[in-house]
Amino acid sequence: xxxxxxxxxxxxxxxxxxxxxxxxxxxxxxxxxxxxxxxxxxxxxxxxxxxxxxxxxxxxxxxxxxxxxxxxxxxxxxxxxxxxxxxxxxxxxxxxxxxxxxxxxxxxxxxxxxxxxxxxxxxxxxxxxxxxxxxxxxxxxxxxxxxxxxxxxxxxxxxxxxxxxxxxxxxxxxxxxxxxxxxxxxxxxxxxxxxxxx
Length: 198
What we know:
Layout: E1 4-7, H1 11-24, E2 30-33, H2 36-45, E3 50-53, E4 56-57, E5 60-61, H3 62-72, E6 77-82, H4 90-95, E7 98-103, H5 108-119, H6 141-152, H7 156-163, H8 167-181, H9 186-195
C-alpha cells in the first residue's frame, strides 16, 4: 500500500495534487500538511511511502529538513514540486534521496506523468524538463545552504549559528558565491537570484 504525504503551504496546490493522486491515479491514502514542523510531526506519527515536498515553506527550506528526513526515514521516496529553478539544487537533492523534481509551471500532462512515474516506486529520472543553465549551478552543497540564508537576509553570525560553522567559513563561502555568480554584494546577488527564480 502506498501512503503519500503532500507538503505545500498553498491549499490550492496540495488540493490539486491530492485530486491527481486520488481521483486520477487511484491512491487513496493521501495526507496534507503546510509547514516543515507539521511535516516532521506527520512523519513521526505515521509511516509514509512517498513524500511530495515544496522547496520553500513558511518555516523553512527543504535544504534544512531533507538531511534529517534522510537520516530518520531513509526508506521514504521523495519528490520536489516547486516553482524554483531546479538546476542548482539537483545534486544536493539527489544526495538526500530525492527521486523526482517537478516544476509547478509545467503543463498539466507533464505534472501528471511526473507524479505517475514517481509513484511507480520512484524509478524515474530526477528531472526531465528544460535544462536551462543558471549562474548558481556550480555552487557546492554548503554554498547553496549559505546562499539560502543570505537570500533570507540573515547576518553572518546568524548563518554561523544555523549551520554550526565558524565565522571564517561563512565568510569564505560567501566570497565563493560572489565569485561563482559574478556578483559583488548581497544586493546584486538577490537581484540575480530573483531573475533566475532561485
